[in-house]
């Protein structure tokens, strides 16, 4: 059983006719977009914005109407994945490198629904290295400043090239170990000049749909 698919398809039930919908990024959000595409073919009328070029391409191929972000004042619902979810519904995101657009779209959504398989549930955030998007300018200084927050940094690469986000920036994966105070860390990282944003999503998720391996879907 594909648990990512089960969680994603469950969440698509929350989408209603006429809604403005944010499309997430990653292998779980992929299944939500596929299901939305099916529903659009069946007659569902929505407008959507995508959190990455990859998701936008997928949506266009499926006939989901995509509109430019600037033409929207707000979104009704966004369905997106996560790398880690704790019991407060705080998240680590950005494993796919789309955290900045994901955070912008989440911020402007009335409802953020996270979809995941049970492996993403954790007691304490931080086993998954925290993705941080940084501008290429002054790369070394920004890396040093991140390391002074007590983490090991790894500049993300893709096929031996530096990974470049849809916004032309780099991603640093920061291993902090257990993140006991996520909100504090989030703000400390944002205080570093050169950092654009980080993958901590604190107090943003409204609903988390978890598919368990015994087939049970849990809504948190
Ligand atoms: C992309 C993300 C993804 O939602 C997150 O990495 C989860 O990915 P997947 O569903 O492939 O496990 O934040 O930037």
How many distinct helices?
Answer: 6
Distance between the termini: 21 Å
Proportion in helices? 25-40%
What is the H/E order?
Answer: HEHEHEEEHEEHEEEEHEEEE
Number of strands: 15
Shape: globular
**Low-confidence regions:** none
What is the percentage of strand-forming residues?
25-35%
Cofactors, ions and other ligands in the entry? ribulose-5-phosphate
What is the gyration radius calculated from CA atoms?
17 Å
Average of per-residue pLDDT values: 97
- Biggest sheet layout: 6 strands, mixed
Give the spatial strand order of the biggest sheet: 2-1-3-6-14-15
Structural class call reads alpha/beta
Family: Belongs to the ribose 5-phosphate isomerase family.
Protein name: Ribose-5-phosphate isomerase A
Subunit structure: Homodimer.
Binding site for substrate: 25-28, 80-83, 93-96, 120
Structural overview:
The protein is α/β, with parallel strands linked by helices. It contains six helices and 15 strands. The strands form four sheets. A six-stranded mixed β-sheet has the order 2-1-3-6-14-15, sandwiched between helices. It has a four-stranded antiparallel β-sheet with strand order 8-11-7-12, with helices on one face. Strands 4-5-13 form a three-stranded antiparallel β-sheet, with helices on one face. Strand 4 and strand 5 form a beta hairpin. Helix 1 packs across helix 2. Ribulose-5-phosphate (5RP) binds next to helix 4. Pathway: Carbohydrate degradation; pentose phosphate pathway; D-ribose 5-phosphate from D-ribulose 5-phosphate (non-oxidative stage): step 1/1.
